[in-house]
Structure formats: structure tokens, C-alpha cells
Amino acid sequence: MSSRKRASLHEKLQRLRAATNSTAVNKTSIIVDASRYIEDLKEKVERLNQEIIGTSSSTENQLPMQVTVEPLEKGFLINVSLEKSCPGLLISILEAFEDLGLDVLNARVSCAENFQLEAIGGENEGEDHGINAQVVKQAVLQAVRNWTENNEQD
Questions:
Q1: What is the average pLDDT across 31-47?
Q2: 67: helix, coil or strand?
Q3: Side-chain half-sphere of 22: how many Cα atoms within 13 Å?
Q4: Helix %, strand %, coil % for the chain, to 5?
Q5: Exposure on the CB side of residue 107, measured as CA atoms within 13 A
């Protein structure tokens, strides 16, 4: 084996050793440590996947919903859709807007067979909170979660 290939192999083994937090010195031990490290990672991934499956199955009874928030020149276009009618949800969402300092400038709402809200919200006059679309979306999602939890207890 040429010295260049040997140096390249040695460098790769040292990178493998560093990546797997191995303290081994010889090639065989480095490879064994790397193999154990990979097995540990596989077990962690499997555990995390099981947790995700457990979490998603516990949230299956939650309402299928879609929330989008698009920034406008002065304010936001907020769309909320749920697959069933949700009496009282509009109030929860409007309270979230109020907490953020958003005024509803225009809105279209349907609560018949499903819940649909399309609203344009602008920051209160004279106030500049510098609210971004993600903050508005999180507030709306939290309002829906709170409404869901309060109505599950009834």
C-alpha cells in the first residue's frame, strides 16, 4: 500500500474516531466503536419514531385544521379552516388577535358545517409591536388548542 493511500486511510479512521467519540487507537477497535455507535444511533432513532407514533396517535382526536398567515403591507391575511363547526372558536381567535394588538379590518366567517375564517388583521393605530406572521400563526394555533381543550372537558 502506498504511503499516500495509507495516510488517507489513517485520516479517514481518525475522522471516524472523532465522529463516534471513540478513544480507541488501533483500526479494529475504531471500527468496532463506530459500529456500536451506529447501533446506538439506530436504537435512538427507533425510540424517537415510537415516541412520534405515540404522540400522533394521542393527537388523532384533535381537529384536522389548517392555519395560514400571510404578511400584507400593513397587517396579515389570516385563514383558519377546520373540518367541523366549532361554536365559540371565533371568540377565542378574536381574543388572540386582541392580545396581539391586531384589529380585524375585514373578515369572512362560516360556522355552518365547518369552520372557515378569512380575516385581515392590522396592528392597532399608534402601536408598532413589530409582530411577524409566525407570531400571529402561533397565537391562532394556541387559541384553537385552548378552545379544543376547553370543549373536550364539557
A1: 86
A2: strand
A3: 23
A4: 55, 20, 25
A5: 18
Please name the residue that has the C-alpha cell 388583521.
121
pTM for this prediction: 0.55
- Measure the CA–CA gap between 154 and 152, rounded to whole angstroms: 5
Q: Which residue has the cell 402561533?
A: 138
pLDDT for position 44: 85
Backbone angles phi, psi at 80, to 5 degrees: -130, 125
Tell me the pLDDT tens digit for each residue of 71-118: 888 888 999 998 888 888 889 999 999 888 888 999 999 888 888 999
pLDDT at 41 over 90: no
Q: What pLDDT does residue 75 have? A: 84
All residues at 6 or more sequence positions from 60 whose CB lies less than 8 Å from its CB, including other chains: none
- Please answer whether residues 100 and 127 qualify as being in contact, where contact means their C-beta atoms are separated by less than 8 angstroms: no
Interatomic CA distance for residues 90 and 143, integer angstroms: 9
User: CA distances (Å), 104 to each of 82, 98, 130, 133, 152, in order?
Assistant: 20, 9, 17, 15, 28
Length of the chain: 154
Q: What angle do CA 2, 7, 11 make, to 5 degrees?
A: 150
